[in-house]
Design goal:
The protein is an alpha/beta fold. It has 16 helices and 18 strands. Strands 3-2-1-4-5-6-7 form a seven-stranded parallel beta sheet. α13 links the parallel β15 and β16. The chain starts with a strand and ends with a helix. This is Glycosyl transferase family 1 domain-containing protein. It comes from Candidatus Raymondbacteria bacterium RIFOXYD12_FULL_49_13.
């Protein structure tokens, strides 16, 4: 059995990378391996912290802002890169210490050396693993969920030196370093840019775990967020980040609230047998946290302004929705899964995703989904035959707040399909059961375990 470590800016959260690493850990520990986490946050039980890796470390945040948005806090690009070098020199010894002390045999960097959020961190890691590979044969497989060059608008080098830094370290191309990606688009682009082959490993879900249902703990979730039992809850479970397209969910709910559509919802019992009355609300519940990296900085406020202008009620509840149940400062904390248990519909309007974690989570919970057909959906997921309500696959433009839009006719059609699934319980059941069966067949932990065994074998670990 081997000692294996995962490293990333942060772990143990509700973002897709954290959740995926947790699944790998379950399988690897079940196989008998020892697993460690090395990240920038200290709130991972048993984890090993390098504070400078955290996205909100003051120097890390300053560097990413100046390196990818606007070079404004340094006198020149050379001064910026001097800061990068100095910070990398502080991080590298910490990587070396953790990896040596833990006697790590195989390291899985997850996004740290691909997404580009931490220029010094990726340099430090690459230099450390080069040293340890030469010293004692450390093996490395990079799990690249996102790349800095992808069409998400999050990373735009502000100078030639930053661009060169990305080409050198993100990702590192070495004979001893293996690479995995999570979709076919990334696989092809990595090959085109670097000549590096990579294995496609889709994100998965544990379909054998207990279903997320109402229970004694989460029974008061709606009350905690100010939503009544008879209100309709549309759950946006993603982080709040420009590319997540939350504005399209607002457009959808604004359409559903039009008098002619409310009349259809109020005409009789809905899928669960309860009526929807004139005083009942349609609410967008945003359970994910506001992302502080990769943002324009104005996105959350732009969403709030748009929702207010369109009369759409949005509940922002990330302060009480975390990775796991518990308590913080006297407040009851719900897990992300508790929010699914109370949802009537899931919105997934991302214009760019590396894969589709929240989609599979919705499918597992047997909830219908309204989504924008982002590129990876088209290349990797649509072919499976999932039944969804579509917001199309083309952005028609941006509004005065720089929020994306789609053609109004597409939103109207989508709203009609949503209403039909809310009204027709039999049709809704057919859709969610079909989607569940497809996902269980293609994206379960059993499928991932077969992949992991092969990945380990290629690294000489049984």
């Amino acid at each position: 059995m081997a000692v294996i470590a995962f490293t990333q800016h942060r772990l143990g959260r509700t973002d897709g990378v954290s959740l995926e690493v947790d699944k790998w850990r379950v399988i690897l520990e079940r196989m008998g391996h020892t697993v460690h986490y090395i990240s920038g946050n200290e709130d991972v039980p048993g984890g090993h912290c390098i504070p400078e890796l955290y996205p909100f470390h003051p120097i890390t945040q300053k560097v990413i802002k100046n390196g990818t948005r606007k070079l404004s806090d340094y006198n020149s690009s050379l001064e910026l890169m001097a800061e990068v070098e100095a910070q990398a020199a502080r991080i590298k010894p910490q990587f070396l210490k953790h990896l040596r002390d833990l006697k790590v045999e195989l390291l899985f960097p997850n996004n740290l050396v691909s997404v580009g959020y931490n220029l010094p961190g990726m340099q430090a890691l690459v230099e450390a693993v080069d040293e340890l590979h030469a010293e004692r044969g450390l093996r490395v497989t990079c799990h690249n969920h996102d790349f800095w060059w992808e069409d998400s608008g999050e990373v735009e080098p502000t100078c030639a030196e930053v661009a060169a830094h990305y080409r050198k370290y993100a990702p590192p191309i070495r004979p001893y370093i293996h690479h995995m990606v999570i979709n076919r688009i990334a696989q092809a682009e990595l090959k085109r840019r670097t000549g590096q082959e990579a294995r496609v490993v889709p994100n998965v879900f544990d379909f054998d775990r207990p279903a997320w249902t109402l229970d004694a703990y989460n029974a008061d979730f709606r009350n905690a967020i100010g939503v009544r039992e008879t209100d309709l809850v549309f759950l946006q479970a993603t982080r709040i980040l420009d590319r997540k397209g939350v504005e399209l969910a607002i457009d959808l709910i604004a359409e559903l609230q039009k008098p002619e559509n409310r009349v259809r919802l109020e005409a009789g019992p809905l899928y669960h047998g309860r009526s929807f009355g004139k005083r009942d609300r349609i609410v967008l519940v945003c359970a994910g946290y506001v992302e502080g990296i990769g943002l324009t900085g104005t996105y959350p406020e732009a969403l709030k302004t748009k929702a207010a202008e369109m009369g759409v009620e949005v509940v922002w509840c990330a302060t009480i929705v975390k990775h796991s149940r518990g308590a913080e400062e006297g407040r009851k904390i719900y897990s992300l899964w508790d929010s699914y248990a109370h949802a009537d519909f899931v919105t997934y309007p991302s214009v760019w995703e590396g894969w589709g974690n929240q989609f599979i989570e919705a499918v597992f919970t047997k909830l219908p989904v309204c989504l924008f057909e982002y590129p990876v959906w088209t290349s990797d997921l649509a072919q499976c035959g999932f039944d969804v309500v579509s917001l199309g696959n083309q952005v028609s433009g941006t509004d005065k707040r720089n929020l994306v839009t789609v053609e109004p006719s597409i939103v109207r059609r989508a709203a009609g399909e949503v209403i039909a699934l809310l009204r027709d319980g039999k049709r809704r059941t057919q859709v969610v059961e079909k989607n569940y069966a497809i996902a269980r067949e293609n994206f379960s932990l059993h499928a991932l375990e077969r992949i992991i065994r092969d990945v380990l074998e290629k690294q000489g670990i049984s």
